[in-house]
Amino acid sequence: xxxxxxxxxxxxxxxxxxxxxxxxxxxxxxxxxxxxxxxxxxxxxxxxxxxxxxxxxxxxxxxxxxxxxxxxxxxxxxxxxxxxxxxxxxxxxxxxxxxxxxxxxxxxxxxxxxxxxxxxxxxxxxxxxxxxxxxxxxxxxxxxxxxxxxxxxxxxxxxxxxxxxxxxxxxxxxxxxxxxxxxxxxxxxxxxxxxxxxxxxxxxxxxxxxxxxxxxxxxxxxxxxxxxxxxxxxxxxxxxxxxxxxxxxxxxxxxxxxxxxxxxxxxxxxxxxxxxxxxxxxxxxxxxxxxxxxxxxxxxxxxxxxxxxxxxxxxxxxxxxxxxxxxxxxxxxxxxxxxxxxxxxxxxxxxxxxxxxxxxxxxxxxxxxxxxxxxxxxxxxxxxxxx
Length: 387
Known about the structure:
By secondary structure, this protein is of the alpha/beta class. It folds into three domains: 2-135, Response regulator (Rossmann fold), CATH 3.40.50.2300; 141-310, P-loop containing nucleotide triphosphate hydrolases (Rossmann fold, 3-Layer(aba) Sandwich), CATH 3.40.50; 313-384, Helicase, Ruva Protein, domain 3, CATH 1.10.8.60. The chain has helices at 11-24, 36-45, 62-72, 87-95, 108-138, 146-158, 175-184, 206-211, 228-231, 247-259, 285-290, 296-302, 319-334, 343-350, 357-371, 378-384, and strands at 2-7, 28-33, 50-54, 78-82, 100-103, 165-168, 194-197, 236-240, 261-262, 271-272, 276-281, 305-308, 340-341, 375-376. The longest helix has 31 residues, at 108-138.
């Protein structure tokens, strides 16, 4: 259901608008206010999906109503209703954040189209907010060990800056989680972070993936294509498993970091980019440099800030918290009831050899929730967590 508020002092126009909207869709729930002040009171109490507001009204005019609504509930689209003499003011309201304006008497098709567009945009904005909250919950950093507290403190200091960060650690420790937190807490967080798994892309395609290509530059290049660096312009790019990148691709990444510009494969045209680079690897890059597989100059460009993510075996004190976190998360995802873990089961999990780190722990918790008893016992852990 879409809740719509009409703020209009002329009763006849108010009735017409209400009738048109109610007949257009049974999902429209229409409320009315006869002046700006009462309309603002309703808008402050009720979560409307759309507001139609007249400009010339007693007690409080539409411009002031719009300004106040945008302060208390900026996400609500507001369509202004203007008389013929109010067009200049209507244009002013657009600058103040109105979605659109409609002249009196309202044209039926224009009115309904504008209403649908405003509601669609509001639904999209609400969905984006919901997804972002879901992403943030999914990327919650759980733990109170000294190592995790140190990483959280580092993120708080580094995230608001433009510094490049190299995140190291074994597979499954949560390097991607650290990268997402760095981006979410940065000034670039309004734009999605672009992620590239360098290990998953064949070496002959990595340059095209990162920097794009022009038509005909190689077999299969049937049209021009932008790369990940262009997609991340104004945002953050996360180069996961950067240690697996080929040397030619490393050279082009180095140039992008040095000069803030890239060129597509098969083109000599430079494209300026404004990208913050985060990188992660499970390899010892110092050793890779010694053996000629990684450029030392690129390493120093990437490793302005170093964050080492500890293995789960190095932070066993966090295991009970992680068990509780994953139990809640998986129960919600699966739509099943949460199960409790006995003290013996938790003790066994704390002493387990977690070679697969946090990723392995999550898989084990999911297995136990599906296959274990109502209270996860020591026997369940021995049966379902064994390798």
